[in-house]
Amino acid sequence: MTEDHIKRLQSDPDGLDFDGLRRKGIDLLQALSRGQWTDYNLHDPGVTLLELLCYGLTDLVYRTDFDVADFLAGPEGDIAFRQQALFPPQDIFPNQPVTDIDFCKLIYDKLASVDDVWINSSQRKGMANGLFSVYIKPRRSLFHAGELSDEELRKKVISLLSEHRNLCRDVDQVYVVRSEPYTLGGDIEIDDSRPAAEIYADIYFRCAKLISSGGQVTRFEEALAQGMSWESMLEGPLTYHGYIKDNHFAQSNYEIDSIRLITLVRHIRGVKQVKKLFLIDTQGNAIEQIRLAQSGDVCPVLAFPSTPAATQSLRLMHGKSAGQLPVGAQDEDPQMPNRHTVQFREQVALYLRKLEFEHDAFRNNEGNLERLIKLPQGQYRTLGEYSSIGEHTPDIYGINHYGVPKSDPPEVHARARQLKAYLYPFEQMMANYLASLQGLKELYSISDTLDKTYFAQFLRDSEVPNLEILYQENATPGEVDAVLHEQDTFTDRRNRVLDSLLAMYGEVFPADRMRRYDVYHTEDVDKHLIRCKIRLLHHLCQLSADRGNAMNVQAAYWTGDNYAAIQHRVQLLSGASEGAVGRSLIAGLGEGKLEFISNARYKKRLEQLADYPQEVRYEQTMALVRSVAVPGAMTDVPHGVVCPSLMLAGIHRENYRVLPVGEKQGWLCLNVDDEHCWPIMLLPTDELAGAAQQLQNKLIALSQTCEGFHLLEHVLLRPRGNKVSRTISEDFYAHRISVILPVFTARFTDPGCRAWMELLIVQNLPAHVLPEFYWLDFALLAQFELRYRNWLELLSGLSGPSVGAGEAAEQTDIAADQLIEFLRKSSQQHSHRYWL
Question: Fewest CB within 10 A of the end CB: N or C in the chain?
């Protein structure tokens, strides 16, 4: 109902309306000039200018109150959501399957050849917790068996589960259950709304899906019409064909009885009354109830009668007459016995094939979520467009676009320019504010090229008439930017903006710890923090959804594409290189490119150089002058060898010294510690600074390449063959992992950094997983990777997860034994900070 009065205009509660700003301005003026000036009435020119500025500020306030979408919109009104770290529902809501129901929904959605699936935790004697068995009911047509063989279907299920496997969980067995066919029998009264054959086919098809297909898929459009929210529909794993309810998969067993069938059939269009309805087994017995436990190897399916006579077991009637026969049909033709029954069966078969085709199309075609989900759109506005407040002054002021008449004397022109210059700082600040509004879209983005958080615009005559004559010659927009740059604490403000974007998703970046332990970016650690936060936001959807995801044991590990999600996540949170994820940690050192040797051997290698100076003291060397030129990347480390001391001391610029040799040459020295200074190589004097910078960059890159970790899940080390005899507790396999890390990199030599890395991994592991940390030197890490690579290759070659005989299983068990023995012998490198 329309109100019968106009609401009174209320003042702005923040005091940002014209009256509030004017009142605040008068108060400030009185506080500043009350000793010299007392006239603050409306006729005073100073008050007039104050009101003019207040009017200009109200325009800024007005533009600030636009919808958020308007600030982010492009020229077409669209918003680059991913660039703004605003992820659509289908990307941010779903997650990696976690529960058994989640895995059932995943299999049912991904594999159209599966009619039903259920999962039981493995109960085989001697097997560890974390294993589960999968029971698959293959899709079966009403007319024939499925297109895939049982073994092909089994391999598809294993491959899918391996791709979506969680840490410390694995498939024990995959069973493809056998089908036990039934047909329908009974009496059903129908009307004339549809052909009898169509009603018959509809009854058979729906009953078949009730008996055989457990999952209930609702199209997203239908779920929305029923009032469901996207938060509910996209909970759990992302299902592409529609919303799948949990009800069926949550049941430990289910029953099919006549009451459920009758309830279903009664709601079919054309059915008036169901007098009786039951199932018929292959021996012709009437079955009123079937109870299916989700641990057996047999499941019921509904098969279409193979003969016309069997079709008559389910009779459709118009009142008291059978509906199968056409109206007016008489006795059977002696020359074509059962002609009408054969025709009726053929008609039903046609309708059934149509229904099956439609159902198969639905199961195989993915829904278009991007079309269904309506994302916000904004109205593009030129927020930075500025118009001078002088345009609203009386013409006599001479500062609007009309200016001062040419006939006026020079002193009038001078006074107008003086007033314009007086107002210029205010106008420039307001113009800069509008430029900042225009730049909000860039500021609150994950752009890695942004280099400022304050935005400015260079006012010209088009914005403020006759302004440019006040500028000095050769004035440029860069001068305005330079003034703001002095006030712009870019790294602090940019980091806080990125923190707010991460906070929207409940993420907190460990900036303080990273600043403390980052020895590679000492001169620009805050900029490195910005890069790390942007990388985390780029991968946030995947890392959040796949938080507990493990590597795919059927795929190659060393390619950099197959790894546990926590490995990638911890690399980003610790500021380490993404290039070390899913790869060998010694590849840059141990594959013929470089040789990693001990400090003593490295020193002896240096002493073999020609004219090598002996026992160089720190006092004999000179500080290295920093090179102005940017050095190129060093292709090779001097002498092709590295050692622990070189890796640790060589990353710090202040450790490089010069031992002069004449006027044109000198030894580049490395101050390893307080007592040792190693001459590294003899170079011309003008090349020393560049070589030191190159060597420092190369050693930093080497450490970063090695800084990662491997996850060894104990459940994957379980016996695969029948000839394994291990004296290991069952607890060794259950929910435990070994985390293998290098101890020889520049950052990981710090015990505090190692403790932080362990804490970071523990915080991001699933709560039920117990980690054991092994900090290995180069030699031990090389031994581990050799055994680990061999075991993974054998494991990926197994045809399935089940235990059995065979050379492949035996070889895998031998490789697993070697890994277990390695862990036992490396117990001295085992950290015990976190335990149960």
Answer: N
pTM: 0.88
H-type alpha helices, 302-338: 308-311
Q: Domain boundary at 706, 733, 767, which?
A: 706
- Statement: residue 801 has pLDDT above 60: no
The residue segments making up the domain with residue 165 are 100-328+337-370
**Which residues, other chains included, contact 263 with Cβ-Cβ below 8 Å and sequence gap of 6+?**
none
Is position 735 within any domain?
A: yes
* 288 φ/ψ angles, rounded to the nearest 5 degrees: -90, -25
Q: 686 with 721, same domain?
A: no
Q: What is the pLDDT of residues 505-514, one digit of tens each?
A: 999 999 999 9
Q: What is the mean pLDDT of the chain?
A: 87
555 located within any domain: no
C-alpha to C-alpha distance for 263 and 265, rounded to whole angstroms: 6
pLDDT digits (tens, 9 = 90+) for 517-528: 999 998 899 999
DSSP-based three-state secondary structure for 198 = helix
Neighbours of 96 (CB within 10 A): 21
Strands (E), 641-723: 641-642, 656-661, 665-671, 677-684, 710-713
Residue indicated by tokens 């190659």: 556
CB atoms within 10 A of CB 163: 14
Helix (H) or strand (E) holding 20: helix 18-33
Q: How many structural domains are present in the chain?
A: 3
Question: Rounded distance, CA 571 to CA 761, Å?
Answer: 10
Q: What is the pLDDT of residues 582-604, one digit of tens each?
A: 999 998 775 557 889 999 999 99
Q: Stretch 745-763: mean pLDDT, rounded? A: 95
For β-strands 298-302 and 271-280, DSSP reports them as unpaired
Percentage of the chain exceeding pLDDT 90: 53
